[in-house]
Amino acid sequence: MPDNRRGLIYGASAYALWGAFPLYWTLLEPAGAIEILAHRILWSVLTMAVILVLARRVGHFRALVRDRRRLVLIGCAAVVITVNWGGYIWGVNNDRVVETSLGYFINPLVTVLMGVLVLGERLRRLQWAAMAIAFVAVALLTLDYGRPPWVALVLAFSFGTYGLLKKQAGVGAVESITLETLVIAPFAAAYIGWLVVAGESGFGTHGVGHALLFTTTGIITAVPLMLFGAAAIRVPMVSLGLLQYLAPTLQFALGLLVFREDMPASRWIGFGLVWVALVIFTVEAVNHRRRQLRLVAQASAA
Length: 302
Known about the structure:
The chain is mainly α. The chain has 14 helices and no strands. Helix 3 (about 35-55) packs across helix 11 and helix 5 packs across helix 9. It is globular, with a radius of gyration of 20 Å. The two termini are about 35 Å apart. The model has no long low-confidence stretch (mean pLDDT about 90). InterPro entries: EamA_dom, EmrE-like, RarD. Keywords: Cell membrane, Membrane, Transmembrane, Transmembrane helix, Transport. Its main location: membrane.
């Protein structure tokens, strides 16, 4: 199988798994969102430590720990991704799956906006048009919900910030996730310990199967990350960028068809505007990429 096709399969598998996460997190109820998050962090530390050794990245991890600048950036990324994970689990387990999908639909636009505000990047005309349409969509959804779509906004901005910090750090995925979960692990362990002492822990109190599901949270976290990493080195970034819409599309479908969440007409209009903005944004990005490649080819031929 050609590397490009294998990469597409890896990428599609990663985003499909991320898109199916709502089905998984609801299996861990009646445990609360913070308890599920704490277990995810602790089991992820163990899983990533094993992967770190098997992938022979221990040397890279040690170099990361000795680099003060990268250590601070990854420490900040750890806090931000914890907010993202917690917000997502809370949203899924509080009947807001459709709203969580909105967060990941608008994430590419938020990422671009952060590039403008933080890195001083400049937007092209159609990118500004996409941003304006997305802003109108969020305003309309705020009126529809009777409140700002906080879950979606927290997910979009936390993940956008996470991506920005990771870009600045320039660290490999395995050692980065290992350090991120390691930074938060003491707080997660303390919270679980408090739940146990208070007699409010859900781990082991709802049967062996439920407890075993908790232990798989590390694997569930690691597998799509490894698939994404394998895809990133095999397919063009444009293809990977298009694949990212698979996850929120699946989440949106699950919210409607499986969890039966309400979707009034005004909400359809809001989501429709978001999708229009994404079409404009994506088509413009693909065309811009093609123009850049054509200019490079012409310059090389000359």
